[in-house]
Structure formats: structure tokens, C-alpha cells
Here is the input.
Amino acid sequence: MHSVSYLAAKPAASESSKFWLLNPAVTFLNHGSFGACPIAVLQRQRSLQQQLEQQPLRFMVKELEPLLDRSRTALADFVGAEADDLVFVSNATTGINTVLRSLSFQPGDELLTTNQEYNASRNALNFVAERSGATVAVADIPFPIDSPAQVVEAVLSKVSPQTKLVLLDHVVSQTSLVLPIQALARQLSAQGIELLVDGAHAPGMMPLNLTELGATYYTGNCHKWLCAPKGAAFLYVQRDRQAAIRPLTISHGANSPRTDRSRFHLEFDWTGTADPTAYLCVAEALRFMGSILPGGWMELMAQNRNLAIAAQTTLCQSLNITPPCPAEMVGSMATIPLPDGAWEPLYEALGDRFNIEVPIIPWHPPGKRLIRISAQIYNHLAEYKYLAAALLTLLKES
Here is the structure.
């Protein structure tokens, strides 16, 4: 058996890793799954939790709404939307369920998605289709893929007179593909078809302008690439659709007599007692992450994307694999199809023997697998070279 001693030494941590609590013994290449919250943002959350517990009634009744508004305004500026069109939800899956379970569908309606849609979102789509008698149509997006035009063609070819809603990932979880959402939104809108976008990975990975993007509904996580605490996400709804979208939990806002806030905010801003501090830390996450590099968020997003592309190139060259997609479809993650071979259990071997945290994803046909790498500012190229060497070692043993 080979061991880690046959590889180059584990790469040293980057200078930026000091801002996180990540275990320095682990080569952490999986920011995409759950994100990682910087120490400074966690300290802000602890401060807010202390403020809450010192006087819970005052915090919830008097202080919470202004704090929510401040965080929402900062987020709206960042994602290119009006604050009036955003509400906080706990995660993108909740955002998807909120929209799908608010809308009404009839037998004969078609709900269109792709074969690469995130499993949780696809389950929600299946649920509302089964309950209403609607059907789910599926556009097949290939992977590997040659161009974004293939996505546009695949989706539009499945549109029919019965299509009522299209559900798409902005960044596909499994294959990391950045889909051409704006081009699709424009063409779907021209046909009177609503578009719901699962943007779980997009905020903080790429510049966003939701107003220009054109999706009817858009939900995104703040705990991933924005690096807010777990439990912070948002839902954007075009102004003329907001009356139809209700939170999954109906609470006091449903019959509030207040007129100083929209019904949209009254319902979503209070759905019952919970710890709201993850939402309230979004502004601090935006500030902190934007302060790490001189060029702010634009430099950070560009640096992460360039690192993901360089890492993809490194792995493809080491494993003699053709890059599976053009660079324009890569964000801060990259997915590579693994060579055929006896790689079981690969995830455990990488973790147990080499202290590398990276997801291994089952793919089709059965037996195929993908490896997905993430690139955050605490990562550097030597870590992906270390991963490539570990994979080659395991391949030789298989």
C-alpha cells in the first residue's frame, strides 16, 4: 500500500486561512457544500445573540425589524435588487419550496426542469406536481458540455404550450456548470413562462444583478460564498408576483393591520420565534469578505474563479482528462469526471489517508463518478496539486 509519505508534503495553509476556524490538518477543498463562516462574522453573531438574550422582548419587538432592514438593504445592493423585493429564508431549499407551494397548478400543466437539477429542489417540484396533477418535463443537459448554447437549446426544446414554470439551477451543484440564466429568462418571459432559479451557489461566486437577470423568482444562499452563518438565505420575487407568494409558516403577518410595511415583509419577517442572527450577520459578512483584498468583492470573485480554472486544469492534466466544459461555464467550483476504475471507497480514502475533504459524486451511467473542487480565498494551487497526487496514488492501487 502506498501512503501519504509517497506524496509531496501536505501544503501549508494560506495566509488567508487565519480568518477561518477550519482544521489546519485538513486540506479543505469543499467550500461549496456548506460554506465556512469567518471568525469575525461568527463574533458578530455571538454579539447579536448576547444582545437578544439580555432582553429578548426588546430585541424581538423593537430592535429586530431595523436590524433586518439594514441587513436586507446591504444584501439588495450586493445582488442588484430593491430591498422591497427581498425576504430572508433559512436556505435556498426553503426558498424553492416557498415558491412552488405558493403557486397553483392544474392537471395538464407542465413544470420544466433539467436532468441536472439539485435533488432537493427536484423533490419539491415532484411533490407539487403529484399534488396538483401537473407533470414534470425534463431537459437533458449533457456533461461534459461544449457551450452554454447547448443548455439554451435543451431547455427551449422542451417548452410547450402547457409549460407554466421552469425551474433551473444558476450553478449546478453536481457538475458546477454556470447556466446561461439571463438568456433563458429573456426567452421564457417572451413566452409568458415564469422562471424560478435555484441560485444556491451564485451569491458571492459571481456578480449578480437580479433586476437585469429577469428571473421571476430567485433564491440564493448567504452561508456559502457570501460566508454568512448557516441559516441565512434570501428569496427574491418580482414585485407583481409578491401577493401570491406566502411563507411556508403562516403567522401574525397574515392579518396584521399595519400599513407601514408591505404584506410581503410582514409575513416573511416574522414566522415565529427563532434565532434571527444569521440573517442579521449578512451585512457583516459582505463587509468582511469585501475587505480581504484591495479590489474588494470583484477581486475576490475573480481570484476564486481563476483558481478554480487553474485547479481544474491541474487535475485534468494529471489524470489525462479533457476539461469537461468551457471556462465561461466555471465559477468558483469545477467538476471533473473521474477515470473508470476500482475507486471504492474514494471519498473515505482521500479523507482517511490524505486528510483531503472533497466530494465524490455518483453520476450516470451507473459507476461513473465526478470530483468537485471548490476555490475560496483560503485555498491555493498547491492544495489541488496535492489532491492530484493523491488521486494518482489511489488510481495506481486500483
User: Anything to note?
Assistant: Confidence is low (pLDDT under 50) at residues 1-6. The domain at 42-289 is CATH 3.40.640.10 (Aspartate Aminotransferase; domain 2).
